[in-house]
Amino acid sequence: MNKGETIWYTGPQEVITIGKLFLEGKFDSERVVALAGSEILHPKYYKTHIGARIVNMISGNETGGHNRYISGNVLTGEKIEKDGFVSFYDSMVTVIPEGDHYEFFGWLKPGLNKFSFSNTFLSRLFPNKKFRIDTNLHGGVRGYVMTGKMEKVFPFDIYPLQLIKAIMVEDIDLMENLGIYEIDAEDFALCEVIDTSKTDIQEIVRNGLELIRKEMS
Question: Which of 33, 64, 90, 103 has its CA 20 to 30 A from that of 82?
Answer without folding.
Answer: 103
